[in-house]
Amino acid sequence: GMELKIEPMSFNACQVAVETKSVDMSISGFSWTEQRAENYNLSDYYYAGDNETEQVIVTTKENEGKFTSAADFSGLKVAAQTASLQLDLCKSQLPEDCEIVAVGDLTTAFLQLKNGDFDALALATGNAEVFIANNPNDVAMSGFIFEVDPKYTANVILLNKEDDELLAKVNEILAKAYENGYYDVWYEEALAL
């Protein structure tokens, strides 16, 4: 009973757009975080597939498998997307002398990694696998996997803190999708794309 208009924008811009009410909601692979819960109405969880349950660090091909513990990143420069779960994980789990760089766009960040602007890039596994599959001679898994609290392994939709009515509608639709088994079908279709 509502009209859908999709406006593509950067990950960080999606959040600002919800805050400023220039969009009604944002669906962009958002994990639940305490900060988001304080600033937004968050939908019930929806299943985003295996790509969200594991968070990893990608590096250059020559460093493949060399960084298997957090301590291995001591003195290195690691990038993660601005306002992302991966940025929070870098800040909380990597050594204090690891320089953490916030980047806006993952495609640009990936090119920066290949160019040597930083040593590694933190990503959800699904994104990492896509980048590696498309550039197998340039990048690889570092060997490190973040410890991720289960509350961060599904996704939520961000809505303005004042929009309880739309939140109720969104949660009703998410429940219906879950009950009808749509998530597995949609996830398989997304993988095929």
TL;DR?
The chain is an alpha/beta fold and 193 residues long. The protein is built from 7 helices and 8 strands, in the order αβαβββαβαβαββαα. The strands form 2 sheets. A 5-stranded mixed beta sheet has the order 5-4-6-3-7, with helices on both faces. A 3-stranded antiparallel beta sheet has the order 1-8-2, sandwiched between helices.
What would you say this structure looks like, in words?
The chain has 193 residues and is an alpha/beta fold. The protein contains seven helices and eight strands. The strands form two sheets. The chain has a five-stranded mixed sheet, with helices on both faces. A three-stranded antiparallel sheet has the order 1-8-2, sandwiched between helices. The model has no long low-confidence stretch (mean pLDDT 92).
Uncertain segments of ≥5 residues (pLDDT<50)? none
| Strand arrangement in the largest pleated sheet | 5-4-6-3-7
Portion in strands = 15-25%
The shape is globular
- Strand tally, please? 8
Q: Structural class from helices and strands?
A: alpha/beta
Radius of gyration: 17 Å
Write the SSE topology.
Blueprint: H1 11-19, E1 25-31, H2 34-39, E2 41-42, E3 55-60, E4 77-81, H3 85-93, E5 99-103, H4 106-115, E6 120-124, H5 125-134, E7 139-145, E8 155-159, H6 164-179, H7 182-192
Parallel strand pairs: 4-5, 4-6
Antiparallel strand pairs: 1-8, 2-8, 3-6, 3-7
